[in-house]
Every structure is written in C-alpha cells, then in structure tokens.
C-alpha cells in the first residue's frame, strides 16, 4: 500500500511538473530525493518493528511487567540511543516509563540519558518525578538522586536526600549511612560525617538494642571509616571499646575489635598480640 501511494504521488508530481514546464533534470532530482526519504523511513520502520511487536502492555498497571517485557524495552532504548536521534530517544523513554513506572532501573537510565542529552536540570526533573511519585519507596532511586546532587555540587540537596532515606525510606540501611558519611567527608566536614554514624548507631540501639546485627555492622563500619578514611586509629579503637561495653553479647562487635587489633601492621607482632589478648580478656570479663 505504501509503495502504491508513493507511485501515485510520483505520477502526480510528474504531471504537475509537466504542467508547470519544469525540466526533466529537476523532476528526476526531486523524485530521487523523495525516494531517499521514503527508503530511510522504511528502513527505520523495519528496524523498530520487532521491538514494537514485543510491547504487550503499553499502558500502566499496578502489576509489574515480566522480565521479557523489561528486556524488550531495554533493547529498544539501546537501539534508539545508538541511532542518535535525541527527540526520538526522549519520546521512547516517555513511552517506556508509562508501563514501566514501577521499575526504578529504567527511571535511572532515563535520567542518565537525559543528563547526557539535555543537561542536569532536565535530569533532575526526571529523578524528582521518579522519587516523589512513581518509585518513592525504592531506596536505589533516592541514593542515585543523592549522588547526582553531590556531583552537581549541591551538598545540601544531597544531604536532604540522605536524611529522607534514613528517616522515611529505609531506616537502618547501613549502606545509606556509609554513603552519607562519605559524602560529608568528601565535602570537607569530618565532624558531620562522624555525626552521621553516631546518629545511626543511637537510633539502632534505641529501636533494636545493642545486640542487633545492624548495630554490630554499624560499629565495624564506623571504626573502619575512622581508621581508613580519616586516619584516626585511636578514635576507631575508642569506638570498639565503647561498643564492647554497650554490646557485650554482640559477636560482631567483638570479632571486629579483635580483627582491628590484628591488622595493626605498623605495630610489632608482640604488641598486636598483647592488644588482642586485652580485647579477648575484656570480652570474657564483660560476658562473665
């Protein structure tokens, strides 16, 4: 049908050219250009057809899409991005996030692509749409937004996102605490970084107690942060000493304290052994 329409249009053009007295060379050139446009459109259509055929649900539904549908959208997006037509890419992403609204990975991909094509302001708008409406309970989207804001130099906005994660989205998530503390360190505020860990530990103790696994992990992460990121060995040791008193029955705390002393390679073997023995003696004393 399309070829018949093209032939009819070409015949009409030829008749018009004859009526207007246009030369054969100009008419031939016009028809060649028209054919090139048609052929290019046909090639693009044929390339998209398998992806379009794979879209089974183009509308939003509360039930998540299956893996095959997600994979089809991802391949389709990759195809359009390789083609390099930015308006087409944007239109396809907007189509995609309707049925895929509950899938944070596709929102994050959309934001990353938008930042490349249209800049950070447009990318921020995409991330805010995602985290405020469609995937507001998905921690990965919020952490992505926090890292994005830090990369743009807006530390206050990044901090606000991390606080929101800790208070509302995923309370007690150790990874979010570590990322927040490292962001504060990179921003040049080690005291605020320490406060992030200490606040998280205090909240965990008040909710689950010092014997909880999360509390033990936070203690180990905080000590490692002080020792490795800030270079403050004594502060890290103090964290373990206080935690061992507060969490006498938490094996993660004691194991971390022993390993911390064993790994002091700048000290002699005898000194490391003495300190490990002190930790072990304290452990049995606290438990006993």
Automatic annotation (TrEMBL):
One of its GO terms (cellular component) is commitment complex. Keywords: mRNA processing, mRNA splicing, Nucleus, Repeat. One of its GO terms (biological process) is mRNA 5'-splice site recognition. Its main location: nucleus. It comes from the Eukaryota. The keyword Repeat applies. SMART domains: HAT. The keyword Repeat applies. GO terms for molecular function: pre-mRNA 5'-splice site binding. It is found in: Nucleus. Belongs to the PRP39 family. This is Suppressor of forked domain-containing protein. It comes from Mantoniella antarctica.
